[in-house]
Amino acid sequence: MKKFGFITVVTLLLASCGQNKQMSESAIEQERDSLQRIINEKDVELNDIMSTFDEVQEGIRRINEAEGRVTVADASPESASNKEVIRENMQFIREAMQQNKDMIAQLKEKLRNSTFNAEKLKKTVENLQAQIETQGARIQELEAALAEKDAQLAAQGEQINTLNENVNTLTEDNKQKAATVATQEKQLNAAWFVFGTKAELKEQKILQSGDVLRDGNFNKDYFTQIDIRYDKVIKFYSKSANILSNHPSGSYQMVKDSKGLYELHISDPTKFWSTGRYLVVQVK
Prior knowledge:
Elements: H1 2-73, H2 80-113, H3 119-188, E1 190-196, H4 198-203, E2 207-208, E3 211-212, E4 224-227, E5 233-235, E6 241-243, E7 252-256, E8 262-266, H5 269-272, E9 278-283
Parallel strand pairs: 1-9
Antiparallel strand pairs: 1-4, 2-3, 5-8, 6-9, 7-8
Helix pairs in contact: 1-2, 1-3, 2-3
């Protein structure tokens, strides 16, 4: 009986030790799992923060790149395509700047609620914010410069329009003056001739009592106007032609063509027309 009691006690002690060992191992496993969850949560939190960091830095890089494109495009402001490039890049910069500001605000909020001892991260955020503010100042200067250039181009455009209007006015004036001069020159170099039978000339009062153009009462519409600078040959289509008006000898010749018809060849127009601008020829 004593031996049996001892065995029972030993058995109970061993069972108790085994149970305690199982409970200890379970507690360790639970603590390990808890720590792993904490580590995982912090990894997620840190990855989220670093991802936002990367987005802000990429935004800063893209803004710098777009700013450079605006500067290059601005070198030729007269090009319509360049103006469109400037407009699109400036719109992109404004949107990217606002996105960066929003992400900086998100970073600050995340760090404020973070369980990290994140002094270095906070300093990095401050540096990023300083970069964004510097960028913002540069963009404002760029926008001001572009606005000034737009104003200059607008003023130049108005000046060009005014100059074009002046040129058009001058051109029109010159055309009118040229037309006036041409008309005056044509009048200054105008002469008139007529040929007809004796009866025809009398009928038009060009020939009266044997006198040619005795007064101004003759039919001027019966004459043909010519330009003495160019019209130096006058055909009479007759085998008999006699000049009745007075013209200096040596300034012309009466010549027959291949058919024997007379025509007048004026060799010295200035001399020929010096005594009068009306030529009268009687034909048969």
